[in-house]
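Feature request disguised as a bug: please show the residue count (319) next to tRNA uridine(34) hydroxylase in the output. Example input:
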Amino acid sequence: MTDTLKTPRPEASLPDANGQFLVAALYHFISFDRFADFRQPLQAMCDDNQVKGTLLIAHEGINGTIAGPQDGIKAVLAFLRSQPEFTNLEHKESWASSMPFLRMKVRLKKEIVTMGVENIDPNRVVGTYVAPQDWNALILDPDTLVIDTRNDYETAIGTFRGAIDPKTKSFRDFPDWVKNNTDLANKPKIAMYCTGGIRCEKATAFMKEQGFEEVYHLKGGILKYLEEMPQEQSLWDGACFVFDDRVSVTHGLQEGEHTLCHACRQPLTPEDLTSPHHEEGVSCVHCHDTRTEEDRKRYRQRQQQIELAKKRGERHLGS
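Example output, currently without the count:
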């Protein structure tokens, strides 16, 4: 089995007329008992419209990000909304200068966002949605405790001013962090946010189940805030990590300057690339001291294969 994929033919790439690819981030919590039977039709619809990315489907709904030509994305979204479960599906759009995904994957999961706590259902109980236009007033209120529900590598490149960073490695760690932080009860209001809204929606459901009464979350997540909030009024500092080849976006959902270390998957700033610990595909400032020489040897061999694939006009799966 080869480790490379041939560069798609121009007609298979199909960027929009402006030379870009439309990116759609979406999720929807709903009772979806037929999710297993829906996997193949959804995969086929994406493939037929040259759409790539990852969509997770489970009993509790759908979650994921896809990219492709504008017409292809619109066709997939229309197909989803034609299903009775997803009539009210919302999505967020942005653009990428190149295809940010290598292939299309529709996966069956136990949860569409993994918290690991049984019976947390945002359809039953959830926090109060706050529109981006109202978010600043809420988080500037001295009675509000603002919590970033994302993981440490995401918060490292951007966050809202004054927000608490739980420094979690995984969303599974969030429930224990809440239970171990009794200081959370010292503020009457809890405001939570995440990239696109799905994690903080489930997190607010968990907080409500734990007895917190005034729990709020940013509707549409950071992406919607960066799309709609004028930069001169913004309380966001830095960039927002995204789970595709763009790595990060900034205000107006413009592509950020970050790249990804392919050894540890941490986002890297342009300054990080100048570090003596940075070696393309092998190590960076974040992982240099945690990798053995045997690790680095393997990574260099992989990087050599990536470079050879580029010269052949192909894309390596490890790139």
